[in-house]
Specification:
Length: 279
Amino acid sequence: MISKLTDPDFVDYITEKWYYQGHELEVVNSYKYLGFTLTTKLSFDIALEEFAGRAKGRVVEIMKTMWSLGNMDSTVFFKLFDAQVKPLLLYAAEIWGFTRFHSIESPHLFACKRFLNVSPKTPNAMVYGELGRYPLYIDSTLRALKYWFKLQSFFLVRIPRQAYEMDKNRLLRYALDHSDVHNWVYSVKHCLDIFGFSEVWQNGGVGNEKIFLRVFRQRMIDCYKQDWYTVEYGYIEYAGENFWGSIYPLFDISVTTDISNIYEQCSIYPFSSLKSSNY
């Protein structure tokens, strides 16, 4: 990909031309490679916004199909979501997965709120609680960690491993100089540190990766639940000035587990609206 320089000190930044085997190459600001849009600023925003738009379209199609079949079972709906929509949202999460992007979570929340037929302003924690769902950043983080384990097994002649070692050495060098550096390797270390697995970084891996990823996923879920059940944190982050939102975690009732076994499907929506209304 060739992008045009925008430095005014570079005299030829407007008239520069690039050639390959006698053919002039197009100078662009972004380029789609393997379905992922690369930009001159190395930003993931454009690519993830594209994924989000396509994902919402798939959600609408799934809901239309289920309505036409007269089946709005939550288990079926979210199995279809996880099979048809989530892989699209988590595409290339091995690279960007340590960062929490609103554009990725937006289609997930859109699907949850449309399914429950509640207001778009309904606090997100309420919607997750009603359906027993968790934010997608948990899945994206696990994918990135899994890729980190995979990188450890690459031979040094492979470019991904060389890039990893370069960033790792840079991180260690800056740490000695007491300077801050933020790259993908730093994200790995930071993620392991904040969830209490610093020894994994220090050891450069674990014995059984599958067991560790399962434990790590549960740790992330537990931390999310802890934040959710802490009324003070929930009041500030999730409920804002919504008093009902601040006390909502005290109600241990889930549509997917209790209510769906008691009421008819048509009664779930008004009950969910009553519990999750944004007063």
